[in-house]
Amino acid sequence: MNGMETLRDIVLIVHLVGFAVLFGAWVVEVFNGKRGITRVMHWGLAIAAVAGLALAAPWGIEGDLNYAKIGTKLVILIVIGALLGIGAGRQRKTGSVPPAVFWSIGILTLANASIAVIW
């Protein structure tokens, strides 16, 4: 294993940690009964997004980039970001997040992390 492969593996771990932060914050909200959008969720999304974009760059190591996987994960990431924005706006305005928005964030986050690992 060369240095670039090691660096890519570290970035992959950071990417998964970003999803873990987002999903973990979401799970905390599920179990505390508030079901709201938190700043930690936004940070987790940002970490996952930045690391994911870094992973989508050509690293000069063997193997081709899986553009279908990258595109799918990017679309899901954008939808999660939109849902976080919508949920945070509703939360500021009404004091609560619509259940469909809240549950979609958790489901899509789990799906995106699963795609990262399984595909």
TrEMBL record:
UniProt entry keywords in alphabetical sequence: Membrane, Transmembrane, Transmembrane helix
Transmembrane region(s): 12-31, 43-61, 67-88, 100-118
Keyword Membrane belongs to the record: yes
Name under which the protein is recorded: Fe-S protein
Protein's organism: Agromyces marinus
